[in-house]
Each structure stands twice: as C-alpha cells, then as structure tokens.
Amino acid sequence: MISLRGVSLVYPNGVRALDNVSLEIGKGDFVFLVGHSGTGKSSLLRLLYREAASTAGEIVVDGIRVDRLRRNRVPALRRHLGVVFQDFKLLTDKTVWENVAFAMQVTGAHTRDVMRQVPRVLDLVGLSHKSRMYPNELSGGEQQRAAIARALVNNPKILLCDEPTGNLDPVNTTEITALLQRINLKGTTVVVATHNQAVVDRMRRRVVRLEDGRITTDEERGYYYLGLGQGQVLSG
Amino acid sequence: MDSGKVKFFLGEVLRNFSRNTGMQVTAIGTVAITIVLLGLFLFVRAALADAGNRLLDQIEISAYLQSDATAGQATAIGHFLTQDPRIASAQFVPKKQGLAELRSRTRGSIDTALLTENPLPDKFRIKVRDPEQVEPVAATVRRLAGVDNVVYGQKIVQRLLALGTVLRKVGIGLILAFVGVAGIIISNTIRLTVFARRREIAIMQLVGATNTYIRLPFICEGLLDGIIGALVALGLLAIARAALWPRLLEALPWVQLTAMPVDARILAAQLILTGAAIGVLASWISVGRFLRT
Q1: For residues A101 and B267, what is the distance between their CA atoms, to the nearest angstrom?
Q2: Is residue A154 assigned to a domain?
Q3: Would you give the DSSP letter of residue A26?
Q4: Same domain for B133 and B70
C-alpha cells in the first residue's frame, strides 16, 4: 500500500529531514511513527500526501509513483488519502456537516453521494447528533472526530494522522485512538505519527522509530521506548 | 446537471463575496473609477473625432480648369471623376455659376459689376468619401489634362489628420495605463481575500480539489467586482452627462458637438466587458500566485 525506497528529503534551507529511508506498509496495517520532535515524522507523512517532494528515492502510495507525480496529478493522489492533523483544520464558519460535506463537494462529488456518505461517516465517528453544530461549540475530541470524518468521507484506503491526539486530554485521546483502531479494523491502512507514549504502549501495534531523519527500529508489536519488554514498566 | 452542486458553488461565491465587504467595496470602487475615466475618455475622443470628421466632411477639392480647356477635356475629366471609387461626388461648376456664387458669398463687398469679363475659370467641385483621401485624390486630379490648379484646405486637412493620429496613440496608451492600474489594485484586493481564505484553500488542496476548482470562486468574485464596478461607473457617467452636457454646449459654442457621438449601448457594453475582463484577469493572476506557493 505504501512503499518508500531510499527516500531522502532535503529542504531548500539545507536541513536534511529524511536520510535514505526505506519502509513498506501493507494493506490494512496500523503503524505508529515515533521519535522526538524534528526527527522527520511529519516530513515523512508530508511526502506521502505530496505536500513536500522527495529529493531522492522512490515513493509508491496506493500504486501511484508519488516521487514522479506531476503537480496537476496531486489532487488525484490526495483523493486516495485521508489526512488528520493535531490542530484539526476545521472551517469555523461551517457546521460539522458542512465541514465533512465540503471535502466531497470541492472534489465535484454528486449531491446524491454527499447525502449518503456524510451521515455514514458522522455515524462512524459518533457525531451524528452534533452535525449542525459549529467547531467552536465542540470539545477538542469532538473536533478531531469531525476532522477524521472529513478525512474518511471520500473512502480513502489510507488514513495519515499527524499527532492526532497532540491537543487532547487523556480521555479524548483514548476515544480517538479507539476510533482509529475501529477504522483500521474496517480495512483502512492507518499511519499515525505521535509522541504520545501511552497511546503507543497501550495499542501494541507496529512501531517505526525515526531518529535524525533515519529509521532506527521497526518492531511488529512495539513500545514507545526501545527495548521496553512486555510487562515491563518504565520507572522514573 | 446536479442542482445541489450548483447551489453549493453559488453559495460559496456569495458567501465569500458578502464576507469581505470592505475589500469588495475597494475593488468595486477601483473598477468604477477606472471605468469612469475610460468612459469619459472614450466619449471625449468620440466627440472630438466626430467634430473633426464633420470639419473634414465639409472640405471639398476645387479643380480649376485651364482657361483654354476644351469642352471635350471637361467631359473627360467629369467622366474620370465619377469612375474613381474614392470620390463621393463631382460637380461641374461653369464660370458663370462660380461668379454667381462668389457674388452671393461676398454679399456685395466686392462690386462684381465692375468686372468687364468673368475672371473665374470653370471648375469641378469634388467631395471624397474618406477625409484621408483628400490629398491623394487632389494629387491625381492635378495630373489630369486640362486641369490648371487644385485647391483644398491643405493645412486644415493635414492638421486634423495629424491630430487624429496623435489622439489615437495617446488614447491607446492612456487606456492601457488605466486598465493596468485597475488590474494591479484589484489583484491586490483579491489577493487579500485569497489570503483571508488560505485555511479554506489549504483544506481544499488537502482533500484533493483541483486548482481549477479552487480558482473558480475567486474568478467569479473578480467577475462580480468588475461588472458591479462597471455598472456603478455607467450610472455615474449617465448622471455626469445629464448634468454637464448642456453647460458644455454653452461653454464651447464654436465646437460642433453632437449630443451622443457614440452609440450609448455599444459604449456601455464595451465598458462592462472591460470591467469584467479586468476583474477576471486580476483574480486569475492573484490566485495563481497563491496556488503556486
């Protein structure tokens, strides 16, 4: 589903964000990208939805050669992906329903499909009863659920999350994590960049660790901290 | 067509249009001022051209025949003149009639009774279709056998024609300058509205809206600014004409002004089209700049 081979990303200011990264993510996988701030987690995600362009290497997302993608084909790529951010990126002058429908409407979806699809994803994230409310009237967790609904409304095969719980309290964090898991169970490939230790340790899913733009470990059922065995608790 | 789609799209355009009222007023005002200047200029130019043309229309070429020209030569010349497509009319004026005309024109200030013989030669009075053709036609006629001298208002013709050329050149320059300035101001205004909506644009790009789709509402916004601005300008021009025209006629009695030297409907259509074009172009450029970064 996602394949990176020898990918490097050097920003115009000379900062090397990613250095010779290779990674394979299969269909239906759930993957955490962990690492300190500035180790390249977000940069890696940005490459996948072509917000940034790699300077070397080969990137394939859902069969699309992203590294060779022409600018006018970027919208087509983005329709295969859902992206969720720490700051939700909701439009404050639109209701929850309008925010979710917006993602379909601006890609030219038929009204019939909008009317069918929006209630479905709102139900999935548990916001059906608040669809007429504005983002400012919602809690952080609800706003993130609305953002996830928007990311899912075009039925993407891949959901990319950049610090999805970064702005949320523990209760909401748990809820959002559970929601992401449910989405994954329905077959969507989910990639989550995070530095929330609790989330990673509770889920026990695949963990890819980045340090200084390189992948240092890739564990099938990992913990946030390297070498933390099953049943062990980090002291201090 | 999906009516829901259309409704959504129009809703977005109207929403953005009504949200940034201040900026819209700026853009519309700029277009309006530009169009007023442009309209005034086109009107004045048309009035001057009209007055000039009427002066030129009155100009006629007098081709005096040699005193010993034969009747055959006169007939041949007349025949030649009616064949020339550049000539609107050619009238033979025998010397008797010439004298009568001279008498009536001078109204007795010259006592023609003192003349023992008619000093005037026969002549042809020639009118051309296009004022530009006065000089070439005069040159042609001068070479005809039996023609002694050709007289026309050389100085006036040359000056009017030169004035027309200058006016046309200056006019094109001025129009380009007006439109350019308006375009820059509107594109800046629209760039501000684009900037105000950068979150929305970022989200549209994120969910895979094409650049064309993102651009479209802004183009419509520019189009609306342009058309409304032009309509405001037309209103102002109509008021100005109604208020100032009678005074202008009084102030410049020696200029032959027509009440409406241009077709008002055509002028209005030109101005509205110009406004629309300025709006569309300006917004196209300013959104394009934003989408590329």
Answers
A1: 45
A2: no
A3: -
A4: yes
Same domain (yes/no): B181, B147: no
| DSSP calls for B203-235 | HHHHTT--HHHHHHHHHHHHHHHHHHHHHHHHH
Q: Can you give the residue range of the structural domain that contains A72?
A: 1-80+191-223
- Identify all chain A residues contacting B1, using CB atoms and an 8 Å cutoff: none
Interface test with B, best of A46, A87, A105 (most B CBs within 10 A): A105
Domain that holds residue B75: 60-152
pTM score of the predicted model: 0.71
Q: Which backbone phi and psi does B207 adopt, to 5 degrees?
A: -90, 5
CATH of the domain at B108: 3.30.70.3040
The reply to whether B275 and B174 lie within a common domain is yes
Query: Of B130, B152, B174, which marks where a domain is finished?
Result: B152
Residue of B nearest to A88 (CA): B203
pLDDT tens per residue across span B226-277? 999 999 999 998 898 888 777 777 776 665 566 666 778 888 898 899 889 9
Verify that B148 and B164 share a domain, yes or no. Answer: no
Which residues in chain B are closer than 8 Å to A107, comparing Cβ atoms?
A: 207-210, 213
Instruction: List, for residues B157-208, the tens digit of each pLDDT value.
Output: 777 778 778 877 887 888 788 778 878 877 887 788 788 888 888 888 998 8
Are B135 and B226 within one domain? no
Q: Are residues B169 and B287 in the same domain?
A: yes
**Which tens digit of pLDDT belongs to each residue from B9-57?**
888 888 877 877 887 888 888 889 888 888 888 877 777 777 777 777 7
The pair of three-digit structure tokens given for residue B15, joined into one six-digit string: 């929403």
| Interval B207-216: pLDDT, tens | 888 888 888 8
Judged by CB atoms closer than 8 Å, whether chains meet at B213 and A103 is answered as: no
Domain count, chain A: 1
pLDDT at B53: 73
Whether B256 and B209 map to the same domain: the answer is yes
Q: Does residue A16 belong to the interface with chain B, where contact is any CB pair within 8 Å?
A: no
| CA distances for B231 relative to B13, B99, B219, B220, angstroms | 20, 58, 18, 16
Q: Cite the DSSP H helix spans in B107-210.
A: 134-142, 154-196, 198-206
Instruction: Assess if residue A207 is contained within a domain.
Output: yes
Q: Could you tell me the two tokens for A11?
A: 């920003």
Inter-chain Cβ pairs, chain A and chain B, closer than 8 A = 59
Domain count, chain B: 2
Residue A195's pLDDT is what?
Answer: 86
What ipTM does this complex have?
A: 0.84
Low pLDDT (below 50) residues in chain A: 230-231, 235-236
Q: Å from A111 to nearest chain B CA?
A: 6
CATH of the domain at A32: 3.40.50.300
Q: Which residue of B has its CA nearest to A148?
A: B207
Å between A213 CA and nearest CA of chain B: 24
A78 touches chain B (CB under 8 A): yes
The closest alpha carbon to B164, from B292, B34, B287, B48, belongs to B48
